[in-house]
Amino acid sequence: MPKRILIGTVVSDKTDKTVVVKVERKVKHPLYGKIIRRSKKYHAHDEDNAYKTGETVRIEETRPLSKLKNWTVVERVTAGKTAAVEADV
Hints:
The structure is a single chain. It contains no helices and 5 strands. With 89 residues, the chain is mainly β. 0% of the residues lie in helices and 49% in strands.
């Protein structure tokens, strides 16, 4: 059986060798028909602590690494948002 691959945004990188990735999906409401967003957070293994908050990453399902970690980060899709800095003129 192939491993599942998801794309999401890193929302926390505070723990050692672990990042929390938020994956959003859009579903149609069963009664009203409106498209709504559903999200879920996954704990993913990050061996080198290379990924920071705000980056979009691809995660892959693996064997259980701990109580919460069943995913590992494969690659960075895009870098995080850069903050705009205003100069005093």
